[in-house]
Design a protein that fits this description.
With 106 residues, the chain is of the alpha+beta class. It has one helix at 83-104; strands at residues 13-22, 26-34, 55-66, 69-76.
Length: 106
Amino acid sequence: MRAPKEFGGQDMYSTWTYTKIVPMREIEYLHHFADKDGNRVDPAQQGLPPEMPKEVRNEVTFKGVGKGKTEVTVTEYDWPVGHMMEMSKIGMEQCLDKMAAIFAKT
């Protein structure tokens, strides 16, 4: 991912470790910051604040709502309440909006 210009504009990398996959229902994974080669790094090494968690547990659930549509719910855990959690929420909403726009074209 690329940070916004006002936050430095640098490229940042991450890896996911899948902990649970239930086809058509649920995916759980741990998100870790990484270098460009996929090696885990401390977020502070990338210039992120010290309160940034070293890993974030995520749960994505899928629920059929009829007429060929699916409701997707994304839950992120382990964020300390505050600025970093709000930044993550904004980033996740942007990702989901982009994904919805792509699916709307198909």
